[in-house]
Amino acid sequence: METWQKRNLWSALWRGLKGQCPRCGRAALFRAYLKQVDRCPECHEEWSEIRSDDAAPWLTILIVGHLMAPVLIALAEAGLTPGEMALIMVPILIALCLLILPRAKALFMAAIWALRAQSS
Predict the structure, then answer these.
(1) So what's the pLDDT on residue 83?
(2) More confident residue, 76 or 120
(3) With bands split at pLDDT 50, 70 and 90, how would you rate the model's confidence at 7?
(4) SS3 per-residue string spanning the chain
(5) What does the longest C-alpha to C-alpha distance in the chain come to?
(6) Residue 102 sits in which domain range?
(7) pTM of the model
């Protein structure tokens, strides 16, 4: 049983964004692209019970949509056809989603841990 300690939300979020253990910052939070480790090999914090569920995809869509909407509008105003816009936008959208999704998941995991919001 863990003793009650104050957890710094901002340092946990920063470590999560870097893909590190939000508690110690010395080990990776994921063992594969989106597969979190069960337990931190450094500080032994349990991560298997913390789940971000649909929050990470939601945040990813929110960020990518806000980043790419102005680009899409600019491409439309430049007179590109829908096919040309798709050729430009689809690879960028896929790359951004693949880049942001694990960071979003780690961010939510860090917030859940720091705020002690996981279910018991």
Answers:
(1) 94
(2) 76
(3) confident
(4) CCCCCCCCHHHHHHHHHCCECCCCCCCECECCCCCECCECCCCCCECCCCCCCCHHHHHHHHHHHHHHHHHHHHHHHCCCCHHHHHHHHHHHHHHHHHHHHHHHHHHHHHHHHHCCCCCC
(5) 63
(6) 9-114
(7) 0.86
Quote the number of domains for the chain: 1
| Contact partners, residue 34, CB within 8 Å, separation at least 6 | 101, 102, 105
Per-residue buried b or exposed e for 41-69, using 16+ beta carbons within 10 Å of the residue's own CB: eeeebebeebbbeebbeebbeebbeeeee
The reported pLDDT for the residue numbered 1 is 41
| Residues paired with 46 in a beta bridge | 39
List the beta bridge partners of residue 39.
Answer: 46
Picking from 27, 35, 40, the residue whose alpha carbon sits closest to that of residue 51 is 35
* Residue 64 within any structural domain of the chain: yes
Is 42 domain-assigned? yes
